[in-house]
Amino acid sequence: MTSIPRRAALMAATCLALAAPALAQAQEAPQPRITVTGEGEVAAAPDMATVSLGITAENAEAGAAMDEASNVAEALLARLDELGIAAADRQSSDISLRPLWSNGENNTARGITGYEAGNILTVRVRDLDRLGEVLGAVLDDGANQLSGLSFGLQEPKPVMQDARRAAVADAMDKARVLAEAAGVTLGPVLSIAEAGGGYAPAPMMEMARAAKVPVAAGETVVSTQVTMVFELGGAPE
């Protein structure tokens, strides 16, 4: 009859024998890999502009200043209607009223001398051929501030897809060059992650004059980055 201590020793030996392959596999070196970042950039002609139109009015009375700014804003909205700018493409982005103070010179106390009212209207122009006409018209109708002119794409997705393809191609090209230089083969892709994209204006040398205001639309550059991880093999045969 086998004693209990002997049976325990046999069981322990068996467990160690079964665990040995798994332990050896766990201790093996991880498969080498390489991580690269690719960049993609595509330039496209913009087909939309966004501009902020400002109206400011001063008056000794706060209500009168606000009424004057509001009247000009109403006139601008009516003109935008005439120009075919859809209601969805214009938005009041800021309405303000602030006191105007005297400097307190000649030993006089500072005091409020009047008020300044402001109204900011953000407008999208989807027909760039008429952008100069739109800007000239709103200036004639009382807008006294222009700011934040930017160009963009009404449908940016196709251009962004091209930028993503370019970024992946760039990452794969970098990985192939690095693997070749290191004397190893490039294995399959283990992961792909996008680092984010964006838009940036790229100026053109040519300026088109439309109606009263000269406008240079330039180009819109869409860019993105991808990070790719590849498995590496041994030396090529």
Automatic annotation (TrEMBL):
Pfam family, one: SIMPL
Keywords for this protein: Signal
Signal peptide: 1-24
PANTHER family: PERIPLASMIC IMMUNOGENIC PROTEIN, SLR1258 PROTEIN
Name assigned to this protein: SIMPL domain-containing protein
